Amino acid sequence: MMKLEIEGLCVSLQGSPVLDRLDLGAREGEILALLGPSGCGKSTLLKTIAGLLPTVAGSIRIDGVDMSSVPAHRRGAVIVFQELRLFPHRNVADNIAFPLKMQGVDKKNRRLRVEELLEQIQMTGMADRRISQLSGGQQQRVALARALAAGPRLLLLDEPFSSLDEELRGEMRSLVLRLHREHGMTTVLVTHDKEDARALADRVALMSAGRILRVGAPEELCP
Ligand SMILES: Nc1ncnc2c1ncn2[C@@H]1O[C@H](COP(=O)(O)OP(=O)(O)OP(=O)(O)O)[C@@H](O)[C@H]1O
Ligand SMILES: [Mg+2]
Prior knowledge:
Elements: E1 4-13, E2 16-26, E3 31-35, H1 42-49, E4 57-62, E5 65-66, E6 77-80, H2 92-102, H3 107-120, H4 136-149, E7 154-158, H5 166-183, E8 186-191, H6 194-200, E9 203-208, E10 211-216, H7 218-221
Parallel strand pairs: 3-8, 3-9, 6-7, 7-8
Antiparallel strand pairs: 1-2, 1-4, 4-5, 9-10
Helix pairs in contact: 2-3, 2-4, 3-4
The structure holds adenosine-5'-triphosphate and magnesium ion.
């Protein structure tokens, strides 16, 4: 059974079709890279999987369960948005703990979990910093930690390295690989960059104009 199965997915934004009978599957525990030109619908696809956009037609199943009547917060799918969407005036700890608070986790356990995650993203001791006082790379890592806090079944990463310089990109790639090994969640990673796909992905899906054109090994599709 596939972890994620998408069949014939159609999504329109403001009346214009953006996803067009799209088919895609992700296997349990894999990193699937989604590559395609700007505007082809990659972010729209992630938001739709997460339950943030309505579908016109088609189906999305997670662990074999149809998601059409499952609200976003019950899907076990978490997005790290292209624009991060952290709370800029709150501190790092509050940002990471936010999903735990929503789940009703008590204060003591929230604090413990935040400490653990800060260590994993190598930001121990920065719990009290405001988001606006962090570098771009640090903000990316906080967004990742916030996504992992809730223990997602499916992690959706929308260009997590795009705003970083080459050296930081390398560091973030290693971090994502390490977190993926530790947490083991199925991951869909949107990127423009073939090198990201080669470094991280088990499989690659090529997207164009709202459809998936091909799925295959990174060596084959990102030579
Ligand atoms: N809120 C919206 N209303 C109407 N059209 C939108 C909206 N958001 C995106 N679109 C359009 O939908 C299409 C797909 O957008 P999307 O953001 O999914 O692309 P993308 O592949 O993520 O691009 P990028 O690589 O630049 O992030 C584009 O043509 C875009 O102009
Ligand atoms: Mg996008």
